[in-house]
Amino acid sequence: MQPHPIHSTQHFIPSNTMDLPVLFLLLSLSFSFPLSSLSLDTIHEGTSLSIEKSEDILISPDGVFSAGFYSVGDNAYCYAIWFNKPSHGKIQTVIWMANRDHPVNGRSSKLSLLKTGNLILSDAGKFTVWATNTQSLSSVHLYLYNTGNLVLQNMEGLTLWESFDFPTDTLLPQQLLTRNTRLVSSRSQTNYSSGFYKLFFDNNNLLRLLYDSLEDSSLYWPDPWIVRYTDNNSRIAVLDTFGNFSSSDDFTFMAADYGPKLHRRLRIDYDGDVRLYSWDEEGQTWLVSWQAIQSPCKIYGICGANSFCSYIVGSDRKCSCLPGYKMKNLTDWSDGCEPEFHLSCNGNESGFLMLPRVQFIGYDYEKWSNSTFDECKNLCLQRCDCKAFHHTFFREDRYSSCYAKMRLRNGYRSPDFQGGLYLRLPESNLFSYANSVQDFTLVCSSNRTRNKRSQPENGIVKFMLWFACGVGGLEIICIFLIWCLLSRTQQASSVDKQGYLVAVTGFRRFTYAELKKATKDFNEEIGRGAGGIVYKGVLPDNRVAAIKCINESNQGEGEFLAEVSIIGRINHINLIEMWGYCTEGKHRLLVYEYMENGTLAQNLSSHALDWKKRFDIALGTAKGLAYLHEECLEWVLHCDVKPHNILLDSNYQPKVADFGLSKLQNRNLEKASFSRIRGTRGYMAPEWVFNLPITSKVDVYSYGIVVLEMVTGKGPTKGVHAIDSGGETEPKRLVAWVREKRNEAAAMTSWLEEIVDPILESSYEKGKMETLITVALQCVEEEKDARPSMGQVAEMLLRQEDDSHSDDHGINL
Predict the structure, then answer these.
(1) Distance separating alpha carbons of residues 59 and 49, to the nearest angstrom
(2) DSSP strand E in 347-482: where?
């Protein structure tokens, strides 16, 4: 797209042939227009935009974006690009700033395009605050595109500089995030200078969120203890105009209002969360259509040191100082809190205040295992820099742990955390601080006082009074219940009208009529299970979808909403993606992406799955399950891993499906319990049968069975016929049969040929096959603690694949 030419005011020179009335008319017209760049999208070299002229702005041809001087304080300005339509009728939305950390004076400051090709921003003192540092022998011009990109080009059309290459806190559609760029949050909602949160590609080519202050630096998304993998050495991510975000590290997500003709922006907000915003033309405001972190208190540094974060459902987070501490800066919680007391190094002068359900992450200078509470307390008192400790006792394992804290950062209060923090305070002030502990409890209580009557009351009068109060109270309760019902109905209809359930789910809501039309009245059935029937359909935007009708008898409303809320927050290349849902009356449906090659179960007996595809399916499935167990914002167990729930796309890459039917787990997985047994016969771990605690290891067991089934081509429940020592055939279970053949390897080296699926016809890599079988057998150990985690499984298979690649590319001498 070529820049639009600027129509500048011309100077007219009278000639002998020019009629004086015509000259007078032209001169009048020329002076009737301002001598500024009002409503222009281009400026040429030798032009300056003055900060004192509010009309000196660039406007994109479609009128959506403007570039000019933006007020960031008293007599302080930054050169910025903003979205022209004010949100809620108040302020414009800034999407880029040139000098966010060095505002210029409100007088005599200018943006100048020099004849050398350099674009500079100069302050009142005539010194350069910001520059593009560009040069050109030919003339140049500055142009604001409809995309919101401010571009400096020469006459040959060569781009010398563009704002898209230097983002601040916002990424616009078609703007690339690369190895050389990063998004940096603002300091606060009103302070546009650089803040502490950054979105960038790390040295492992993975997209990360980093908290980076003057005192602390921590990766906080994805969880730093989660191992992620990528074979892609490039570092690039982009948001398209439809609301689809894709990154070279296989991280993708889709906006809740997926579709064209919407203004969008991806922003790292001042609170450290990354959100995708979509412009709502009707409401004239920005709506959140996706966000990276659902639990705001899990963001590092959000409340500063010596404070903790509490999440208020339906509202926002709340920062609070620890007892005995006060805010450093009354206007900024990121500065944290400071002690109001002096703590002596003498342990005899210190005591501990227990703060229930409060947890601080990191800064454990020491961990003491199997320590009693008194031992843990004494060990902390022996250290002058010990400010608090966590002590946890696991009754199931009769095991305890003690974490001593040298710094109190990243604190939050959560109902899921069963322990508490033991805060070290001066013994002399302990009693006064103890009064504030009641504010830390999660159960509301009230004090009731009884007032004695000074004079006796008449019994009949008292009875009539209570009767009247009772009737009146009943009427008030009935009116209140009716009002609540009407209020909720109106709120629900409002949500339906907007088509958003963004904060919880992140995908759109369909009507039953839309899905009925998409499936041609539920004509083409592509799958059936205990949970319901799956149909193929084509959505209004021409996307092919798998639409699952939930059986009313098999799943109640609570389970349906649980599945919706879980899947809406989960994005991974090896997990099936949900696009939306429908709930109208008795109809409950889920809309998934459609997988061209069906399920793994449908492909096992065909020749479509060669050795490479089978190994890739095993690896991809392990990655998907590891993400559910270890990397999700909320941990999820699948509980029904089987070939029917592993779908294959057009390239036979696996995507795990139906994980939304599992129970959402908190961090204390050992205490998890399920109301009924889940899973499929043959794939179920022994824990289900013996009513043992259910952990992520039930999925590990089922995964091992699936891998053995892929390797051998034999189902887990049909049995395998083997010949015993007497020459008779006897049925054996798949796991026992594979173990037996492997144990005979010392005497018989052809054990792989005996168990591998004949369809493969010896076309497989023996080393990788042995590793795959070994890992699978570890997964199906009877004792759950002997099984690896899914993260460890993925790591072992990846290591084997990397070793194989190294051998393939080795040097032949």
Answers:
(1) 13
(2) 350-356, 358-360, 364-369, 388-394, 399-405, 411-413, 420-426
CA gap 401, 368 in Å, rounded = 6
Name the token pair of 15.
């000639």
| Interhelix angle 766-779/697-712, nearest 10 degrees | 140
Cβ count within 10 A of residue 673: 8
Tens digits of residue pLDDT in 290-320: 999 877 788 888 888 999 998 765 446 789 9
How many Å apart are CA 778 and CA 691, to the nearest integer? 22
Do 33-166 and 504-594 have matching folds? no
CA-wise closest residue to 36 among 9, 56, 54, 7: 56
- Residues 210, 217: contact at Cβ < 8 Å? yes
H or E element at residue 535? strand 532-538
Residue 583 bridge partners (DSSP):
588
Give the pair of three-digit tokens for residue 207: 């997209």
Q: What is the pTM of this model?
A: 0.52
**191-201: per-residue pLDDT in tens?**
999 999 999 99
What is the CATH topology of the domain spanning 33-166?
Agglutinin, subunit A (2.90.10)
Half-sphere exposure of 792 (CA within 13 A, CB side): 11
Apex CA 602: angle with CA 601 and CA 604, to 5°? 65
Bridging pattern class, strands 350-356 and 420-426: antiparallel
Going by the annotation, the residues of the binding site are 548
Asked if 83 and 144 count as a contact pair (C-beta separation under 8 A), the reply is no
pLDDT tens-place string over residues 602-623: 998 888 899 999 999 999 999 9
**What pLDDT, on a 0 to 100 scale, did the predictor assign at position 442?**
34
Query: CB of 99 within 8 A of CB of 121?
Result: yes
Alpha carbon 709 to chain centroid, angstroms = 34
How many angstroms separate the CA atoms of 470 and 48, rounded? 78
**pLDDT, tens digit, 9 for 90 and up, residues 558-586:** 666 656 766 666 778 898 888 888 888 78
Residue 725 has pLDDT above 70, yes or no: no
Query: Distance of CA 567 to CAs 300, 436, 496, Å?
Result: 25, 39, 20
Please give the CATH topology (third level) of the domain spanning 504-594: Phosphorylase Kinase; domain 1 (3.30.200)
Strands across the sheet containing 411-413: 317-321, 307-311, 411-413, 358-360
**Three-state SS at 715:** coil
pLDDT at residue 498 above 50?
no
Instruction: Output the known binding site for ATP.
Output: 548
CB 391 within 8 A of CB 376: yes
State the Cα–Cα distance between residues 286 and 267, nearest whole angstrom.
Answer: 12
Taking only the tens place, the pLDDT of each residue in 686-724 is 888 777 778 889 999 999 999 999 999 988 865 554 444
Count of C-beta atoms within a 10 Å radius of residue 89 = 8
- Amino acid of residue 269: D
Residue ranges per structural domain of the chain: 33-166, 301-440, 504-594
Residue 640 annotated among the catalytic residues of the structure: yes
Tell me which of 257, 269, 640, 658 is the catalytic residue: 640
222: preceding bond cis by omega (within 30 degrees): yes
708: exposed, middle or buried (Cβ count in 10 Å: 0-12, 13-18, 19+): buried
Under CATH, domain 301-440 is a member of which superfamily? Hepatocyte Growth Factor (3.50.4.10)
